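Suppose you are handed a protein chain with no further information: no name, no annotation, nothing but its sequence. What can you learn? This example shows the usual starting point.
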Amino acid sequence: MQAHQPYILSLLLLATAPAAWAHSCPLEIFKIDQALSQQKHLDPITSKKIRELRAEGERLHKQDKHGEAMLVLGSAKKLLKID
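A reasonable first move is to predict its three-dimensional structure. Written in structure tokens, the prediction is:
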């Protein structure tokens, strides 16, 4: 039975990963919103791109595409230079 434990653990982790991402999306959106409100020196083009990425991330989250949402939100955070 112990030989199957890593396999079972892997399946459990894969099954719960989307749920974990689902809860992370709103936190990432919040971080982006906070950074946008504090960084007044952003040029208009960068600010617009960040806002578009943030909106796209939220849209993907609402469509239960959490992996894609996290990638898009990560791009916005990279432009903001935040973790």
